[in-house]
Specification:
Length: 262
């Protein structure tokens, strides 16, 4: 016979302690907050022919080729069902204008989705260029480190993803990202960001933003393959990354990036 606890206060206290201890175990016991898809059960997620450990994805962006047309932003919104509100972007374009007196102005109307108006006074502008921004899919991602429930994680092929089934919308990862690349999805109330169009690259397709770029300013590829387009891009250009002093080791590489870009 099971002896019942007659004191409801003690019973409730024990149940509360079980919940707390269970949550702590997710944080301190390696693997308990992980995803089975990323712990060896690759076939269920990737299919029979794909081994994520054989890949390491990244993106290259040639600043000199970007014309600020906004097609990449529009394609990203459509492909990934991103809200049309002007506050939510998985990728966007910034226009940098450097005046003759050295003053730098940055604008990004509607994320650059609709292009940019030619409203600058040319006689006062020394140089103007466009810089596409996107999640950097860091090797040492701060967002993964701060997630209390393991919802943000790095796949075996180097892509940073968010599992909305686990995400509790605490915004820790949004605050931790030093590049401002995350937002809270207004529909799911969970953290959201660029995924390199993971659902596409697993099928051998390029991310939507890369596919529609008319000047091939964006280059996607596999860094583990010496002959991949991205590996050649890195070898043949003077490469910079955003905020290198943070040692996050971004996998988005910029060619011809001006030092004024933050």
């Amino acid at each position: 016979m099971i002896k019942k606890d007659k004191d409801p206060v003690k019973r409730d206290r024990r149940e509360f302690c079980k919940i707390i201890l269970g949550g702590i175990s997710l944080l301190i016991i390696p693997g308990t907050a992980g995803h089975s898809k990323d712990q060896g059960d690759y076939k269920a997620w990737y299919g029979e022919q794909y081994n994520p450990k054989d890949h390491r994805y990244g993106m290259g962006i040639n600043v000199d080729r970007c014309i600020g047309c906004g097609r990449c932003i529009d394609a990203c919104k459509r492909e990934n069902n991103v809200s049309d509100d002007p506050f939510y972007f998985k990728t966007w374009i910034e226009r940098y204008s450097i005046a003759r007196n050295g003053e730098v102005t940055v604008d990004s109307p509607n994320g650059g989705r609709d292009g940019f108006k030619n409203d600058l006074q040319e006689k006062n502008v020394l140089r103007t260029f466009f810089v596409p921004k996107i999640c950097n899919h860091c090797e040492n991602p701060p967002c993964v480190q701060v997630c209390p429930v393991g919802a943000t994680y790095k796949t075996a092929d180097g892509v940073i993803l968010v599992d909305e089934r686990y995400c509790i919308g605490c915004r820790y990862c949004i605050q931790a990202c030093p590049y401002g690349m995350r937002f809270l999805n207004p529909k799911t109330k969970t953290a959201d960001k660029c995924t390199f169009c993971y659902h596409r690259i697993l099928k051998g397709l390029a991310p939507a933003c890369v596919e529609v770029c008319p000047t091939e300013a964006r280059v996607f590829g596999d860094l583990s393959k010496v002959a991949s387009p991205l590996s050649r891009f890195v070898r043949m250009n003077k490469i910079m990354v955003l905020k290198p002093q943070l040692n996050t080791e971004p996998k988005v590489f910029y060619a011809n990036l001006d030092m004024e870009v933050k």
